[in-house]
Every structure is written in C-alpha cells, then in structure tokens.
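Hi support team,

I'm opening this ticket because the web form for multi-chain structure prediction keeps timing out on my end. I have pasted the exact lines I submitted so you can reproduce it. The total is 908 residues across two entries, so I didn't expect it to be a heavy job. Is there a limit I'm missing, or should I split the entries? Thanks in advance, R.K.
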Amino acid sequence: VTFFAQVMYDFSAEPGNNELTVKEGETVTVLNQNVGGGWIEAQNSRGESGLVPEDYLQVSVCFLLLFFKQLCETFPRVHCCCCCLQVANGDNPWSGGGTYTNKTMGDVGPVWLYPQSPLDCVVADPKKGSKMYGLKSYIEYQVTPNTTNRPVNHRYKHFDWLYERLLEKFGSAIPIPSLPDKQVTGRFEEEFIKMRMERLQGWMCRMCRHPVVSNSDVFQLFLTYRDEKEWKTGKRRAEKDECVGPMVFSLIDPEAPELDIIEVEQKCELFSRFTKEMDDGVKDLLNVGNIHWKRCTGPLRKEYQKIGKAFQNLSSVFNTSGYTGEATLTDALTAAGKTYEEISQIVAEQPRKDLHFLMETNNEYKGLLGCFPDTIGVHKAAIEKVREGDKMVAAGKINTQDKGTMAKRISIMCYSLQAEMNHFHSNRIYDYNRVMQLYLEEQIRFYETRGRIL
Amino acid sequence: VTFFAQVMYDFSAEPGNNELTVKEGETVTVLNQNVGGGWIEAQNSRGESGLVPEDYLQVSVCFLLLFFKQLCETFPRVHCCCCCLQVANGDNPWSGGGTYTNKTMGDVGPVWLYPQSPLDCVVADPKKGSKMYGLKSYIEYQVTPNTTNRPVNHRYKHFDWLYERLLEKFGSAIPIPSLPDKQVTGRFEEEFIKMRMERLQGWMCRMCRHPVVSNSDVFQLFLTYRDEKEWKTGKRRAEKDECVGPMVFSLIDPEAPELDIIEVEQKCELFSRFTKEMDDGVKDLLNVGNIHWKRCTGPLRKEYQKIGKAFQNLSSVFNTSGYTGEATLTDALTAAGKTYEEISQIVAEQPRKDLHFLMETNNEYKGLLGCFPDTIGVHKAAIEKVREGDKMVAAGKINTQDKGTMAKRISIMCYSLQAEMNHFHSNRIYDYNRVMQLYLEEQIRFYETRGRIL
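Hello R.K., no limit was hit. The queue was backed up. Here is the completed structure from your submission:
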C-alpha cells in the first residue's frame, strides 16, 4: 500500500537534519507516518527522501467517494443473492398439510407461513433452438431450482403460460406482476436476450419468494417436470384447475379468530393509499432516471467528447505556429483532450452499471404496484357484501348460515390481504435496501477502481 | 495526517497474535505502515486495532483526481501573477532613447525590446461616484501601476477613451483588442461591476505586457497622472497626436539589415493562416464551454435535484407504510436524497470556478485574433506597393530615392509585424499554460477540498 500526500505549504529543509524541501502543491509518497514529534518521512518524485512536518501535508480525498461511502454505510447490509429473503418466523411455526396457511405474528399482524429454506432458481444459458426442420427458431432458457438442482428448459411462451395460470388462480388474492414485455423485433439479438433473461430471472425470483405461489402445483410443475410427458400432462391438469379466482381463498385456513372488520378496512384503505403514492414515487424516479440515463449516454457524452476535441484541435493549431518551444504545451493540451474523451466514454458507460439495477427494480415495482388496485378492489367488494348481509337475510336472499359462511370467507380474505401487505412490505424493504446499496457501491467502484487500473 | 485504507478481502485474526479481524469493504485507519513483514497496523471504526496483511488493504483513490493531477503536472509551471511574462532578452539588449526599437533574436527572429522589469497594474476597488448634484452616477475604478504604486481613478469611459487613442495610434502595427462590452442595463449591479472590473484588469494587463504600448505617452498618462489638470492637458495633447496610423512605423528603428521580402511574405502567410485557424479553435472551445456551462447550471443541476427529490419522496412514502422496522431504510433514503441535492448545487457552482477563467481567456483571445486580419491587411498592401515600386519609378510616379525610402519603411513594417507575431506567440504559450493549469487545479480542488470540509 502506497500513501500519497499533498504538500499544503512550502517547507525548506534545514541542512544536516535529514529534512526534505517541498513545495506547495507537490505530491509526495509517505514512507513512515510514525516518526513521531510531528514529523513524517516522505519521498518526492525525484526519489529524494527526508522529514516533513506533518501539518504541512494533507491526504487527497475525493469528496464524492466520501459522500457515497458514508451513504452506503447508512443502508443496512443485506446479502445480494437472489432469493435470500428471510422473514422472522416467530415461535412455533405451524404448517397445515396440503393447504396454504397463515398465522398471526407479533407486530405486523397476519403473515404467510414462510418455508424454512426459501425456494430459489437460476435462469441462465439461453440457447437458440428450432423446430419444423429449422423453419421456426426460438430461444430456450435453462431454469434450475435450488430444490432439485436439475435444470429444465423453457421458452418465453412457457413463462407466459405460467403467468396466465398464476394470474387466473391467484390474481384475486395475490398481485401477480406481468412478465417482461413481449417484443418481436430484435428477438434474437444478444443484448435483447440478455436483458430478457435478466428480467425473467427477476420475475421468477419474485414468484419463488412468495410462499403461496411457489408452493402451488403449477409453479412446481414448471420448475421440476422430468420429461415432456410429465410437462404435457401437468399442463393439461393446470389448465383444468377449477380452484381459481375467488375460490383460492377456500384453500387458506387462518386457524385464527375473525378479524375486526373496521380495523381491516382502515388497514386496507391505508395500504391502498400507500401503493398509489408509492406508484407515483416509483414512476417519478423512473422518469428522472430515464432522463439522466439519456443525458449521460447522449448530450453529456457528446459534450465531453467535444471539449476533448476542442482541446486537441487547439493543440494541432498551436503545432502549426512555427514558433519554437511550445511542445510541452501542445503535448499537455493533447493529453487533456484525450482525458476528456476518456471521461466521455466512462460517463456514457456508467448508467448501465449503476442506474441499470435501480431502474430494473423500480420497473418491477411499477408492475407489481399496478396489480394492487384489482386485488384491493376484490377485497372491498367482498367487505361491502358482508355489510349488506343483514339486509340480504331480511330480504330472504340468503339464510343466516350462508351469512355466517360469507363472514368466515371474508375473514379469510382479510387475513390473506394483510399477509400479502406484510409480504409486500418486507420484500420492499429488502429490495430497496439492496438496490440502494448496489447503486452506491457502483458509484464508489466508478471512482475507485479506475484509480487502480491507471 | 490520517490515512484510510479499504479492506479488499475478509481476514480473520489469529488469537494472541495482535491481529485484527476485518471484513471486505470495511474502511480502516492506518496506524503504522512500517510494521514490516507485510503487515500493517490498523484500527477499525469501533476503535479496535491490530495487524492486518498489507495485501488485504488498498488505498482509496479517485480516478478523476488522479486524471487531473497527472494532467496538471504535464503543463509547464508558470507563475500566476498578472503580468510576469518574461521573454528572454538575449545578449546585449539595446534600447534607443525615445524611439521604440526592436532587435533580431536567436531562434524566433525579430522581437520587441522588453523592459527589464515589466509594467503591471491592479484594477480594484470599484466605487460609486456621482456628479451634477447626484443626478448622474457612475462607477470609478482604482488603477494602481507597479511603477508609482500610486492609485489613479478611472471610469469605464476613460478606459474607452484610452482604447480609442491606442487603436488610432498603434492599430496599423499592433492588434489592440476591444474593451469588454459596453452595457447599460444592470450597470450598477454588483455581479456586473465585478465582472467588468475583472475584464478591465485583463485588458490592462495585456496592454501593460506590450512593450510598445505600455511605453507610450498616452498609456503612461492614463496610469500616472497626478491631478485633474495634468490629466486634462495630457488628454488634449494625446488627442492632437499626429504620429498615428502608419506614421507609427517611423518611430521604430530596427537598426538591422533589410529583411528578405519573400521570407517575410511566407511568414506572414503562415501567421495569417494560423490566426484564422486559432480563431476557429477558440470559438469552438467557447461554444462547447458555453453549452457545458449552461447544462451544468441548468438541466444537470435540475436533474440531480430531481433524483434527490425522488429519493426523498420515496422515503416519505415509505414512512407512511405503517410497517415496523424500516426507519433505517427511510433515513438512508433521505440521506441519499439530500446528498444528491448537495451534488446538484456543487455541480451548478462549478463552472463559475473552473470554466470561468478558461472562458475569459479564450474570449480575450477571440477579441485579439479578430484584430489580426486588419493588421495583416495593412502589411500585405504595403508589400504589394514595394512590388510595384519599379513600375512606379518607370512611370515617373516616384523617383528612385522615394523607392528606397519606401523599401526601408516596408522593412521596418516587416520587423514590426514579426516582432508582433513573436510577442503574440510567447504570450499565447504563457496564457494557455496558465489557464489550463488553473482550470485543472480547480478540478482537483473540486474533488479534494470538500473532502476536508466534511
């Protein structure tokens, strides 16, 4: 490790004292910081060394580096693997056989019952495949779940099929975010394939993280089918599944007393407002992020390029002066010009490194938040119905037993929605901690690593 | 001086060995770099200290800082006072009494005879004055030459008068750059007065640096008049000066053999092309500089502000979640938002610090370069006349003696133009070295000093 320090004031060495004369602005290498008595042993660029008063030196620090380092440390550390979200399970976790369950938990109210080891999968290795004797070609992705560790292959249209199934089955209770955009042009270009794979990975991770979705037959089929036959049979069964839409609530057994409907309504209202406001906030961030991205890769890059060109151009003109003794100036001007061209490239490449992940995460959240109005709508309509229960009994439309069943059903829906809210919040905190950390780490890397390369 | 280092890999201390356990990404303070054996004594943020392998640490360096430091060192050092330009005078400098002289010199050809100690002046202390019982008000600047050290007061219109005199007297031989713009609106605003003063200072410096201009009666009068009477008398005399325009060449005594007219023409052509190309280069740099300035103070500032606002906004929304345990995230998001707002301010203030001087110098050069076509035009016309000399003698328009006088006059003009070219080149090299150094130093200061403030 070599330390550099900058000289702040001129210092003249006293002869015979092993001191070093230094000039303001000079950069010296620190040989020994522990000489004591307020002295530091330093070496100048000509290789001469000696003592310099400590107060005459300062260490070069980059304020942006400091800024981002301090910031980065304020975010709580999270691990950066994909699906490692761990929600505290409380004591005595209880899982009810084949039905999805949830249970009341400490501070936050109802939560889903999370599996001890969370499901995860890796989407990788996109390969071009073809059928009908090469007439039709497509891209196949390898999906490997951490449970079987056995890869299965899927095309985009299979993911799309899975999405449709999940939406149909869970859409009333759980927001199922859309898949990354369908897109036909550039479908086989490397950049596009990489981007789509990354987004499919993100989508799969989110689904894996959801204890209800990830535990469903159709999701398990998608991840673990062993051969074409099993896949086709499973597909047919899933398409015939009748436990879809509101029916899904019948699978949930809260094993808990009915919730207070007033409190549930308030929470629901709060959450509804929250998701709307977060949606605005996320869209706002995406908007400025996009503008900044475009400015960095467009006008700003061009501007630094132009500054670089202007310096180099001036240098060329100066070279034609026919006047002697300006080689140092023209060389330096050319170097300055080249540095600015380099900076222009670095600036243009940066968004793909730092903004990219921030944008991707917020895009995912934009999709997710877009699902909530429907989920909440189903819920509100149901509560309305319970409210009208007495009238309906009076009008003879339903009997008291029906009303009781309805109330119980609503209670289950309430549990489910609240578990979903809590699932959303804990994921959100995890995701935003992670994305901010990655973003700031990239800022730090931006300033730091290039220093090592030079 | 405190040195920080960043931990690159995890390191587990062996018990009893005075070692320190550190984690990748952690920042430690270096207590002793000279422990030896590949070890460094470091302290972590909790105040614990111990030995860490040297290879596990790296020093934080900011690549931009490195870039600019390296660049800055490539430019030859020049002192940053105003008029300290020193042109080597060669041996045996010869000055002829009251006439302006020049002499041949080593590599570059004819140069003006420069005074041993260059003239300089300081324009400072703008004060509002008024006359006609306060009906008319104006700004008066204090001008103090380094020869008398006695300040004299001048209004802008006096500078303008001086400019007119110098243009009339020397315009055929020496490019006299225009004064900073006349401007009526905002004439008494602080910003404007400061800017005008700075530009008047720049203009005066350039005039002081010119050995012929600075030695003239009218320029000396402007700098050293002792009272209103002396000023008025001097003014009247200067306005009646008949040694103006081409007549000024009669004041120059090259005391040297006639120059080769072909060579002079070639040099003149080269210089003409050079000034045209430099003019383009300077305008180009001014253009991108202006665009960059506007982007920094306008869209870029707003963009960083918006990013900052978007983070803070998201933080506020998150605060309304009603979910427990996200205070760390929202605090960190708010901090990130505030940092970006701070960065936006810093970015917006930067051009005034770094670009400003680069722009001012190039603006000055734009003005100066604009004068050359006229100066060169006068010269070319004169050469043409000498060419026609024989014809004119044959046609009886002039006699042989006239032709000889004419040839001698042209020779003087050639000396003068070449001295002027050399004056321009040496000043240009000095100015651009200086301005690039200041510019790069400001870049370094931009990244560095804020580190100390924090």
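A quick check on our side: The longest helix of chain A spans residues 261-319. Let us know if the file doesn't open in your viewer.
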